[in-house]
Design goal:
heterodimer, A: 171 residues, alpha/beta, Rossmann fold, four-stranded parallel sheet, 4 strands, 11% strand, B: 188 residues, two-stranded parallel sheet, 7 strands, globular
């Protein structure tokens, strides 16, 4: 809905949750976490010919404090686990995670002592992108799927449930 | 083989055996004589650049060979000596002469019960990280190394993963979440 279409003094009626979701889904700022070849595809997706900024991923945020979507593109070694977990914990709510590529989804071809078998073992993942590496279109499709997910979210209801729980437990 | 000649001249009895593969010369020296040998090769023959240094675990290869020669019944004695007498590990030094562009591989054999090798960091600074990697992957300790710590795996990792008796998929080691004490500002 374009606000310019409404003229004069009037009312605009919507649900607060929908308004919040509308804002959130149009600015999923990504935190690029490229650890392998998927990182190159992610760069291509962010650069001019694919231009992920069209869907609101306007500015790749290299600080976890200002990012909404963690794009985990590449292999995660077990040595890297605390770093990834810490980066995720440093991100402010609301936050989402895209696991890009076979390695991030499941460990990929590296079924070895040094490789984490899928990042969902340590952080929650919203969208998985298969491929080795996936094309930039794949990542953009994942972002669109994530936007669909954000659209269906109930941020206030979640907050209410959380508050209720805190009241019951007296914290 | 002028190079072989020169090596024999400077190393003398320390050159235990020679081998050639893909136009590159191998020379085996005794484990305790490695640093003097490398020093002579560096100063006399001009091998002034250490390209790489790595370990090899030959246990699986020896077992395979022993099994193969046991099949030909008559070789039984030879098979037993092969699996028991040869030391398990090797450390290989890849040297390069930057003036003549000649390469040389120096090899020592390291038995499992004596895993200490003299460090080459006194001759080449470049030996620092490869020796740490070798220690990490095979458990070969380098005496005189300035900072012998694991290079690839994390500090608490209990095994040496490139040894042939270590399973490829690991033994379920996980790195624990460990926050550093307030204010140190770096990862251990």
């Amino acid at each position: 809905m374009a606000i310019e279409a409404y003229t004069g003094d009037g009312w605009l009626l919507t649900k607060l949750e929908q308004l919040i979701n509308w804002g959130r889904k149009r600015s999923p700022w990504p935190l690029p976490y490229g650890t392998a070849c998927c990182g190159i595809e992610m760069m291509a997706a962010l650069a001019s010919s694919y231009d992920m900024a069209r869907f609101g991923a306007e500015r790749p945020s290299f600080s976890p404090r200002q990012a909404d979507v963690l794009i985990e593109a590449g292999t995660i070694t077990k040595k890297m686990v605390p770093v990834l977990k810490r980066i995720y914990e440093q991100m402010a709510e609301p936050k989402w995670v895209i696991a890009m590529g076979a390695c991030a989804c499941s460990g990929g071809v590296f079924r070895t002592y040094s490789t984490l078998q899928g990042i969902d073992q340590i952080i929650p993942v919203d969208v998985y992108v298969p491929g080795c590496p996936p094309r930039p279109e794949g990542l953009i499709y994942a972002l669109l799927k994530l936007i669909e997910k954000i659209e269906k979210d109930h941020p206030l209801r979640k907050k209410a449930i959380q508050l209720k729980g805190e009241l019951q437990h007296g914290t | 083989m002028a190079l072989k000649h020169d090596i024999l001249k400077v190393l003398g009895n320390n050159a235990l055996s020679f081998d050639e593969s893909a136009g590159c010369l191998f020379v085996e020296v005794p484990k305790d004589e490695i640093i003097p040998s490398l020093k002579i090769l560096k100063s006399e023959l001009g091998f002034d650049f250490l390209s790489d240094l790595f370990g090899v675990d030959n246990s699986a290869l020896y077992a395979k060979k022993a099994k193969k020669s046991k099949k030909d019944e008559n070789n039984e004695e030879q098979a037993d000596t092969l699996s028991s007498s040869l030391p398990r590990f090797e450390v290989i030094y890849l040297l390069l002469n930057l003036t003549t562009n000649k390469r040389l591989q120096v090899r020592i054999r390291v038995p499992e019960d004596d895993l200490t090798v003299e460090s080459a960091t006194s001759l080449w600074k470049a030996a620092n990280w490869p020796e740490r990697e070798c220690y990490d992957m095979f458990g070969i300790k380098f005496k005189g190394h300035p900072y012998l710590r694991r290079l690839l795996m994390w500090e608490e990792f209990p095994a040496h993963p490139l040894r042939k008796d270590y399973p490829l998929e690991g033994m379920g080691e996980e790195r624990d979440m460990k926050y550093e004490p307030e204010g140190t500002g770096h990862w251990t």
